[in-house]
């Protein structure tokens, strides 16, 4: 309202004919920018509340919920956004933020998986066997294959538990 009044007074002071539509459009633009900023703050707050790493499906679900909630706020508070310009800008910002956050999640998942693998006894045994050249004997390939399969099975079991645990708590 203050912007609307200021535009109107400025027009009168300069001797111009006040244009209510122009003044209202300027006020609406300022208000819509404020609403978009609040919407983005809501979105970022909900996303930054997530503890990484997360399984991709859980993260996608969280993004969708945060996006819907923020857009609902924007749609109820935006002023005269006939062509949904403000909403399109907000969606582009959300997509950019989501992509950056997903990259960060992928990096965290890679670190997590590496730590899981390095912490497995079966993987340590496999590494020790390679260093000690235990597999470089006749029939060693069978033992090597068995040790690799054991390490893979143990690794996948730990990650399956991780995936199920994360989905339940979200």
UniProtKB/TrEMBL annotation:
Q: Which Pfam families match?
A: GBP_C
What are the Guanylate-binding protein/Atlastin C-terminal domain coordinates in residue numbering? 2-159
PANTHER family with a match to the protein in the record: GUANYLATE BINDING PROTEIN
List the protein's name: Guanylate-binding protein/Atlastin C-terminal domain-containing protein
Organism annotation: Mya arenaria (Soft-shell clam)
Please spell out the taxonomic lineage of the organism that makes this protein. Answer: Eukaryota, Metazoa, Spiralia, Lophotrochozoa, Mollusca
């Amino acid at each position: 309202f203050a912007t609307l009044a200021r535009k109107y007074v400025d027009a009168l002071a300069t001797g111009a004919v006040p244009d209510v539509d122009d003044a209202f459009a300027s006020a609406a633009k300022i208000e819509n920018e404020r609403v978009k900023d609040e919407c983005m703050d809501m979105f970022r707050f909900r996303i930054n509340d997530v503890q990484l790493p997360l399984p991709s499906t859980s993260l996608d679900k969280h993004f969708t919920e945060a996006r819907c909630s923020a857009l609902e706020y924007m749609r109820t508070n935006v002023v005269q956004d006939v062509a949904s310009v403000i909403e399109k800008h907000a969606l582009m910002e959300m997509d950019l933020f989501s992509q950056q956050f997903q990259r960060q999640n992928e990096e965290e998942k890679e670190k997590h998986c590496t730590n899981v693998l390095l912490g497995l006894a079966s993987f340590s045994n496999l590494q020790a066997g390679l260093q000690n050249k235990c597999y470089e004997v006749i029939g060693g390939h069978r033992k090597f294959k068995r040790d690799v399969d054991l390490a893979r099975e143990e690794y996948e079991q730990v990650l399956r538990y991780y995936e199920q645990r994360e989905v339940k708590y979200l």
